[in-house]
Amino acid sequence: MIYLDNAATSFPKPPQVIRAVAGAMEKIGANPGRAGHRMSLAAGRVVWHCREEIAQLLDVPNPEDIVFGFNCTDSLNLAIRGCVRPGDHVITTMLEHNSVLRPINGMVNRGLITWSLLAPGEGGVVTAEQVERAIRPETRLIVINHASNVIGLAQPVKEIGAVARKHGIIFLLDAAQSLGVLPVHPLDIGADMVAFPGHKGLLGPFGTGGLYIRPGLELVPFREGGTGSSSESMLQPSELPEAYESGTLNLVGIAGLMVGTRIVRARREEIQAREKELSDRLWNELQDINGICTLTTRAPDVGVVSFNVTGYSSGEVATKLDRANIAVRGGLHCAPAIHTHLGTLDRGAARASVGHASTDADVDALISEVKRIARESM
Ligand SMILES: Cc1ncc(COP(=O)(O)O)c(C=O)c1O
User: Fold this and answer.
1) Which domain holds residue 164?
2) Do residue 101 and residue 198 come from a single domain?
3) Least C-beta-crowded within 10 Å: which of 185, 194, 273, 279?
4) Residue 16: its pLDDT value, please?
5) How many domains does the chain fold into?
């Protein structure tokens, strides 16, 4: 199978990640941070080293500012629900994934908050000026998708971060498609929180993800319970990371994530350059095929290329490619607003997303199969 669905989750995982998962299961499968015996301490060290790896990748000084969750959705929910209060206004964009749109719109629908949903301009970008114009006295949060999982374009997050800082508004960055590929440095960007999955660009296992939280920013936890600390109290501790990490952690997942992040830290620039080269070529070659329409007017910034074939739905295209042993994703990619904006809500798009292990041959095979499908549709 030629796997071009890395925007959903990265595959294959590096063998070192698989070994780390199996090793944790086999040798140190105790509950991290819950007991004083050697196995529990060893498990706790794995969790700590993973925090350190991620803190280094994000270029933040304190690993305790990284909180583990179960995927990017989990982290986005903690960030959004944790800081928004009734009466607040939230600014976000039509580029967002449902993991941002649904928690916010759910609160809007219940009459608790208001929101501004900004549309990207011609170049697929929401500008800092647009964000600044949308600010109201009650604006509490700005949420921006660093790189879109549908059109693959990066947003001017540093400029938006400067606007958020100038107005004292909390800035949450969704780095689901960027972490591990683009540089994501919250201190430089001016992001107060960065939500990320562990199973995409960090090459970790399913069930992993996390949230960077700027020191001093207090969230209301939506999951409370045992933390292995301050157990005499029936109130949730306020110290990070325990404040937001109740219950037994996904130790085996975190063991794999630690190794995946280490690999990515060593290879990030190379991965970025390689994914850019492959997706540039794919995007460019698609422009020359009759009957193919890409969703963007320029090549993407991350390895995501979405397109449609005249005469077929995106689901049909994905099924035809699957029959040719090529895995891409059709449909809306959990991002309905950008499809509404682009006029593709009815058919979605076929999305090919390259990853750390993608090759020229993978892209060649896709292009040749897409040419065949396009000819057949004529
Ligand atoms: C931009 C974006 N945000 C959030 C998510 C949610 O990530 P997860 O599947 O880890 O919850 C995704 C997943 O595709 C995404 O692309």
Assistant:
1) 15-263
2) yes
3) 273
4) 98
5) 2
